[in-house]
TrEMBL record:
One Pfam family from the record: Glyco_hydro_16
Molecular function terms from GO: hydrolase activity, hydrolyzing O-glycosyl compounds
Protein name, per record: GH16 domain-containing protein
Stored InterPro entries: Beta-glucanase-like, CBD-like_Golvesin-Xly, ConA-like_dom_sf, Glycosyl_Hydrlase_16
Gene3D superfamilies: 2.60.120.200
Keywords: Signal
Domain GH16: 26-253
PANTHER family with a match to the protein in the record: GLYCOSIDE HYDROLASE FAMILY 16 PROTEIN, GLYCOSYL HYDROLASE-RELATED
Superkingdom of origin organism: Bacteria
């Protein structure tokens, strides 16, 4: 590895081995790096990160325990009284909210039992692990330092504020590796599944689909807390360390609500429908029934030029528009698809595969025919 530890970290960690597997990167082509922190500075980039500050299990989490130096982010694990606990840990939570794509970090856990370290995705700002907005949790790795070869990967669903939504998938296994050394951990999350990697090797696949629960936008959490077993103070201070964190995007979803509505707009009169869309509890919109010319537009911000298959989510209902028009604008060319919203069932309808430039020049626009109710939910651009 190209980096060396700062003197402060050397004092904290008398013996540190920086050799180990290098970055694995996405398992396929077509991905664009859109969020990263290489931890090359001398302080936490607070433009990117919140600190984890909750009190949970055996530790309180403190910003003072998180440092950046020598090309690493380190979480100090200490025996100290704070927040009513005898130990302190910490972590970082990204301010940017992300969803489908490839996530990766390179990390090493501490030596000594009693600490639960993790690289995971969930809503929140780090002040609690039970925020009201929590819906999807994806655990890219969870490692208890008492078992330094064991990894847990999984997906949990929440109704918010710590209330389970009932669906969960997971695998706990002996990795055959010493996780106190450097290893690379990855997640490839798509609409239909979450695939978990260690050192570029696929270890587990969770079949997580939108009909299971809401697939929401989440923050990246890099954390370590005292949990499971009371830590032995004689092993402290210690540190959990991260070399970098990276996120690559491949597919683009534009919705009518939430963070994915950044490129959504309407003309004419539209209202919120009681009919849901492509993911659980996703609201949909409808134009005033029998009114022609109302439009809805989905305009992604494509980070890379390329070929994308375009899909629109059809909301089927007896009074939907039987001749709803979708225009796909790609490289200045307009391709039109007419969709019968009264036929078949709700689901994704292909609008074709086209080449798009990077940026916001390409888009999809739907227009009401004047018969029935035109409906709008989401459009996705899937890189091919």
């Amino acid at each position: 590895m190209r980096r060396v530890l700062s003197l402060a970290l050397v004092a904290l960690l008398p013996t540190v081995a920086l050799a180990g597997p290098a970055a694995a990167d996405p398992p396929a082509s077509g991905y664009t790096l859109t969020f990263s922190d290489e931890f090359d500075g001398t302080a936490v980039d607070t433009g990117k990160w919140n600190y984890r500050t909750d009190v949970k299990a055996y530790s309180a989490q403190r910003p003072e325990n998180v440092s950046v130096g020598g090309g690493l982010m380190s979480i100090a694990l200490r025996a100290e009284s704070f927040g009513g606990k005898d130990f302190t840990g910490g972590g970082l939570v990204s301010k940017q909210k992300l969803r489908y794509g490839h996530y990766e970090t390179r990390a090493k856990i501490n030596n000594g039992a009693g600490w639960h370290s993790s690289f995971w995705l969930m809503a929140g700002d780090g002040s609690t692990t039970f925020p009201a907005e929590q819906r999807t949790e994806v655990d890219i790795f969870e490692i208890d330092s008492i078992n330094p070869q064991t990894v847990h990967n999984g997906v949990l669903t929440w109704k918010g504020s710590g209330v389970s939504a009932g669906k969960s998938y997971g695998s706990t296994y002996n990795s055959g590796l010493d996780l106190r050394q450097w290893h690379t951990y990855g997640l490839d999350w798509s609409e239909t599944q979450a695939k978990f990697y260690v050192d570029g090797v696929l270890r587990y696949t969770a079949p997580y689909v939108p009909t299971d629960w809401t697939h929401d936008y989440t923050s990246i959490w890099l954390t370590s807390i005292a949990y499971g077993t009371v830590p032995d103070p004689s092993t402290l201070p210690a540190a959990m360390q991260f070399d970098y964190v990276r996120y690559w995007q491949k597919d683009y979803y534009v919705d009518n609500d939430g963070p994915a509505a950044y490129g959504y707009s309407e003309s004419g009169t539209w209202s919120t429908s009681t009919l849901t869309g492509w993911t659980v509890a996703s609201p949909t919109r409808y134009a005033t029934c029998g009114t022609a010319a109302a439009t809805a537009t989905w305009r992604p911000n494509l980070r890379a030029a390329g070929t994308y298959q375009v899909w629109a989510y059809k909301v089927r209902a007896a009074n939907s528009d039987p001749a709803q028009r979708y225009d796909t604008i790609h490289n200045g060319v307009t391709s039109t698809t007419v969709v019968d919203g009264t036929a078949g069932s709700s689901g994704w309808v292909s609008l074709g595969t086209w080449t798009f430039p990077a940026g916001t020049g390409g888009y999809v626009r739907t227009t009401a025919s004047g018969t029935g109710c035109a409906r709008a939910d989401a459009v996705k651009f899937v890189r091919t």
